[in-house]
Amino acid sequence: MKKFEERTIASETLYNGKIIELRVDDVELPDGKRAKRELIKHPGAVAIIAITDQNELVLVEQFRKALERSIIEIPAGKIEPGEDPEKTAIRELEEETGYRANEFTYVQSFATSPGFADEIIHLYLARSLEKVENPAAGDEDEFINLQECTIEETEEMMKDGRIFDAKTAFAVLFLKELLKK
Amino acid sequence: MKKFEERTIASETLYNGKIIELRVDDVELPDGKRAKRELIKHPGAVAIIAITDQNELVLVEQFRKALERSIIEIPAGKIEPGEDPEKTAIRELEEETGYRANEFTYVQSFATSPGFADEIIHLYLARSLEKVENPAAGDEDEFINLQECTIEETEEMMKDGRIFDAKTAFAVLFLKELLKK
């Protein structure tokens, strides 16, 4: 299987921000030609498919500036430097939803936008949930609305666009599959 | 349902590239405090869940500079300015795979990274495929390996990381669901 590697000729960091970094690379293509690649570096994130004992999916509504609207997503958050993704996931679930899970398992990792970004999301499944008495507080610039929805409700929300992001769309199909078993 | 809107106080474009644009916004949060939002503007993309008459998923292997490796994905491509997403999808399917579909239907749209990017992927389902005699050529900086895989093979590829992006992970679950019916 040929790997079509693109060799880096030059690399320039144009922005180094709080969350993302912008880099433009000059690359040599497999045929010897040159091309530019605009690349975003991101610390990576986790997301949690949290299911209540009533088989409802735990969701958070949040304003997303990039989209200029609120959308409804599974709980998620960025990985802090050096933090183990599973710890991030346990922390984010508590901060965003007030839940702790007695069953916590790794599901899958994927890149969200491999065409320009290195962001990878690690997905976890949380079951046997318990409300924490005094949950850890989340980021102070996060404003979140919590809700718990049946699989039928989440499918409706996918259709009308309230659910509108890749990880949550994956979670809805994953849950549907899981509940069939 | 509160929308938690973040009002833009100031907006600065720091990079305007061939594919992406980087903007940093100062926003006012619902509690009156201020925050910075690092935002990537992207033209949007399409992706195609193309299924052969043998119920195999059409996949392309491609080197992704952002990840510094090759991954196996469903066919996809950026929307050209003013182009109708369905036309983009028909064009990309032909360019990347040499297939034209007699059945072409819209499935779903989702944002890939709503935390920092406005990229939206429009997903289409292509069935009743036919090989085109002289397919249109793709981008000259794209090097692609075509393959067709059963649902069991794609699940194996998700497990071992050859399939490693959100849209293709969604497509695998979608196909599994579809073939059950």
UniProtKB/TrEMBL annotation, chains A, B:
Co-factor(s): Mg(2+)
SUPFAM superfamilies reported in the protein's UniProt record: Nudix
Coiled coil: none
Keywords linked to the UniProt accession: Hydrolase
Keyword Metal-binding attached: no
Range of residues in the leader sequence: none
A Pfam family: NUDIX
Keyword Hydrolase attributed: yes
Single GO term (MF): hydrolase activity
Record-annotated Nudix hydrolase domain positions: 40-171
Superkingdom field: Bacteria
PANTHER family tied to this protein: NUDIX HYDROLASE DOMAIN-CONTAINING PROTEIN, UDP/ADP-SUGAR PYROPHOSPHATASE
Family membership: Belongs to the Nudix hydrolase family.
Record-given protein name: NUDIX hydrolase
Species of origin: Sporosarcina jeotgali
